Amino acid sequence: MTRSEVALVEDFRRKSCQIFHQTNDGFHSLMMKGFDSMGLIFSQNADRNQIQRALRTLDSERKISVEYEDSNADSVRLMMYGFIEAVHLTLRHLTQKNDEEKENFTQLNAELQKKVNDVTNEMANLMGEVNKLTDTNGRLANENGLMKEIVARNKSVQDKENELAKLRSTLPKNSNEVQEERRVLE
Fold it and tell me: Residue 40 and residue 32: Cα distance in Å, rounded?
């Protein structure tokens, strides 16, 4: 509702209040209650209980006014009672519909929050898995480096063993030569 619409309702409420103070007619009191209810519904600060109380008060005031209305009341006046009852029922219906929409919104919001929490938890689990894989990858990289180092050392050992085998193969020739030289010298 726009500001001008709220101002219109408030303006009629004030006029009804002025008329009420000028007369003892209970119908004007009923009109004031109707404008009060509408003003409350359009208010940003009103809560559900205040609105329900205002609507019940409007309905009670209408029933009392109709009960004590002069039996010779004109048809326009009686039509206004019907109109006020229709306004009351419409306002009650709108507030109930609003309550249902708020409840649906609250339920949808809770479901959405649960889904957000589920996704957040799943993301946390996936991040844990990523961290484990990153750690495993780091370990494997270290192990790969160690394997390369071991292979290089094994190659070095193999080279040394080959060199030693060459030296050993020459050693018996040298020993034989040494023994021959000893024999020759003896």
Answer: 12
Q: Which two tokens stand for residue 100?
A: 């249902």
Give the global pTM.
Answer: 0.50
Amino acid identity for residue 96 in this structure: Q
Give me the domain span that covers residue 60: 3-110
d(CA 103, CA 33): 28
Taking a C-beta distance cutoff of 8 angstroms, is the pair 40, 50 a contact? Answer: yes
**144 lies in some domain:** no
Q: Are 63 and 84 in contact (CB under 8 A)?
A: no
d(CA 48, CA 103): 12
What are the tens digits of pLDDT across the range 89-99?
A: 888 888 888 88
Total tally of structural domains belonging to the chain: 1
